[in-house]
Specification:
The protein is of the alpha+beta class and about 190 residues long. About 45% of the residues lie in helices and about 20% in strands. The strands form 2 sheets. It has a 5-stranded mixed β-sheet with strand order 5-4-3-6-7, covered by helices on one side. Strands 1-2 form a two-stranded antiparallel ribbon. Helix 2 crosses helix 3 and helix 3 packs across helix 4. The radius of gyration is 18 Å and the shape is elongated. The two termini are about 15 Å apart.
Length: about 190
């Protein structure tokens, strides 16, 4: 029951990602990092404070929110969020390999939808072999290729954007989509 209260909405999950990435954030900082309106971020923060996983502390005129590291679920939730980011980086690596050297240079990143569909963001969508990519995504990860789009703004559903960046260490994913400001239940 407590886990449902903590992970109950997409906005709470987005705010948790922001809190685990940055220690001590204000409502506006959490909203910006989570891609939410400040009112939606505040509501999510208040619900997380009620669970005990997040602490609110007044510093001058500002209220600063931090993860309560003594909460028994803080470690497992942090590991879950790190695993999610790692999967995204691994998917980008697989996509780079399948696209080859020339195709990988035009890869912007991947958008991962909550229902397991993948959008490949590529500056030259016409050169991407979607059938091959779909077969590999399904066989290796149980995911489906939804579409190849020129940039993440073309994906009009909630998604986790994992930038391609340069080959090497993983970059932090970020959330986007048509519902970025609403407080919807997590998938």
């Amino acid at each position: 029951m407590l886990l449902e209260q903590i992970l109950g909405t997409r906005n709470q999950i987005r705010v948790l990602r922001a809190l685990f990435r940055c220690s001590g954030v204000t409502v506006s900082e959490a909203a910006r990092d989570a891609g939410l309106r400040p009112s939606a971020a505040l509501f999510a923060l208040q619900r997380l404070v009620e669970t005990g996983l997040v602490r609110a502390e007044r510093r001058g005129r500002r209220r600063v929110y931090t993860v309560n590291r003594t909460h028994f679920l803080s470690g497992p939730i942090e590991q879950l969020l790190a695993a999610e980011a790692g999967v995204g980086a691994h998917l980008v690596s697989v996509a780079r390999t399948l696209l080859g050297e020339e195709g990988a240079e035009a890869l912007e990143g991947l958008c991962l939808s909550p229902d397991g569909r993948v959008y490949v963001c590529h500056r030259r969508p016409e050169v991407v072999d979607g059938h091959r990519l779909d077969r590999v995504l399904e066989s290796m990860f149980g995911l489906r290729l939804a579409s190849v789009v020129p940039n993440p703004r073309r994906v009009h559903e909630p998604h986790l954007f994992v930038p391609a960046g340069e080959p090497g260490p993983a970059v932090s994913p970020s959330w986007g989509g048509a519902d970025s400001g609403s407080d919807q239940h997590a998938p």
